[in-house]
Please model this.
Amino acid sequence: MEFNGRKILSDIYVKCETGKITGLLGRNGQGKSCLMKIIYGSLQCEKSVRFDNVAQYEAYKRPDLLLYLPQFNFIPRVLSLKRVFKDFELDYSFFQILFPEFEKRYNASISDLSGGERRLIELYVIVTSRSQFVILDEPFTHLNPLQIEKVQQLLLQEKENKGLLITDHMFRHITSISDNLYVLSNGKTYLTESVTDIETLGYARL
Model:
């Protein structure tokens, strides 16, 4: 894939399986978000994305198959939490058990939430959905340390039901929970054999 004559993605292979968390790391500008949009089908590419060996070019039309958490907020500010959980067919009581700070906010509007709270709602409804796979772009943005720890526990729990592909610039939160870890560098993906490979590939010093 090229943008303004510059090749961004050229040799890409990522395998995501049910029951596993797949981490994707890469420096800014390497094309991680573009790759996720290609998988989701909102960005067209000449290569195919396959689910059980069947090509899916518009996976975004199949919420039972794949859901995507983008970097930006996607739930309209005018909606209430009650409406959001109803639309996603989720039980709010399970959410407030995990995050008791939301216990009395069922009727609150998204516009009443802080940036971290809004991100938490969006992350939760995507991760706990009935979709077979989810892709998460910068899921830990704006979350505090306690929320991040709880989200990590949630991801480990939910991987029993689905496959997860995650990227985040706070890479230690990814490496600690991933079953498989890829590094995207110079348009190519590299499956790491150990955490030290991250340093070898020039992503970060550990």
Notes: The helical segments are 32-40, 81-87, 92-98, 115-127, 145-158, 171-175, 196-200. The chain has one domain: 2-200.
